[in-house]
Design goal:
Blueprint lengths: L26 E7 L3 E8 L2 E7 L11 E2 L5 H15 L23 H11 L7 E2 H7 L6 H9 L12 E2 L11 H10 L8
Helix pairs in contact: 3-4
Length: 194
C-alpha cells in the first residue's frame, strides 16, 4: 500500500518527536543528448534520483510523472548532460562542465554512498581501477565490493562510474558495455592504457 504509514512506524502519528513527512513527487524528463542519445532523468524537488541512458532500451525503474515544464533539478541536470555530451578532450583539457545538480542518494547504503563520493572525485578524462577506489576508501581488499556498489549507481554519467575500470579489462557498467566504451571514448580514456 503506497503512501500509507503503519502504526508505530517512523512518521506515524503518535511517535514522539517525529512528524509525518510528505512524499516528494517524482518527475521525469527524456532528453536527447549529443553523443549519448536518449537519456531519462528522474528527480524530485530536493534532488536527482536517477539517470538512465536509454540507448539500449533501458528505462527508469522509478514511478514518476513525465514533466516537460520547468523544474529546477531536471533543468540543471539537463544543462549538465548537454554540456557533457558536447565535451570532447581537446589539446589535453576537457571543457568546463557546469555544477552537477543536487543528488538524492539517501536510499543507498553508507558504503555505496562512500564509493560514489570517491568516484565523483575522478576528473573528466581520468580513471581509477576498482582497487584504486577501494584504496581511496582505506579498504584495499574491497575492490569487488566497490564494483558491486558502482553497479547500484542510479545516477550514471553525473556520478562517473564509467571512469572506474577493472585491473585487466574494462569491467562492467549498468547501462551496458557499449555505453561505457562510448563514454570512455568521449573522454579520450584508452581502456587498455593502465
Amino acid at each position: 500500500m503506497t503512501g500509507a504509514i503503519r502504526r508505530g512506524a517512523p512518521g506515524a502519528r503518535g511517535v514522539r518527536g517525529v512528524r509525518p513527512q510528505p512524499a516528494l513527487a517524482l518527475v521525469r524528463r527524456r532528453v536527447a543528448v549529443e553523443h549519448l542519445g536518449w537519456v531519462e532523468i528522474t528527480a524530485h524537488a530536493q534532488g536527482l534520483c536517477e539517470v538512465v541512458v536509454c540507448s539500449l532500451g533501458d528505462h527508469s525503474r522509478l514511478r514518476a510523472q513525465t514533466l516537460d515544464g520547468p523544474h529546477r533539478v531536471l533543468d540543471q541536470t539537463e544543462r549538465y548532460l548537454q554540456a557533457y555530451g558536447r565535451s570532447h578532450v581537446r589539446h589535453g583539457r576537457a571543457r568546463r562542465l557546469p555544477a552537477p545538480p543536487p543528488l538524492d542518494l539517501a536510499q543507498l547504503s553508507s558504503f555505496t554512498r562512500d564509493v560514489l563520493a570517491a568516484t565523483s572525485s575522478i576528473p573528466f578524462g581520468a580513471f581509477l581501477t576498482y582497487g584504486g577506489v577501494a584504496r581511496l576508501l582505506g579498504r584495499p581488499k574491497a575492490a569487488r565490493a566497490v564494483g558491486q556498489a558502482l553497479g547500484r549507481n542510479p545516477i550514471a554519467i553525473i556520478i562517473p562510474c564509467h571512469r572506474v575500470l577493472a585491473h585487466q579489462g574494462v569491467g562492467g557498467f549498468g547501462s551496458g558495455l557499449p555505453i561505457k566504451l562510448m563514454l570512455l571514448e568521449l573522454e579520450d580514456i584508452a581502456a587498455g592504457s593502465r
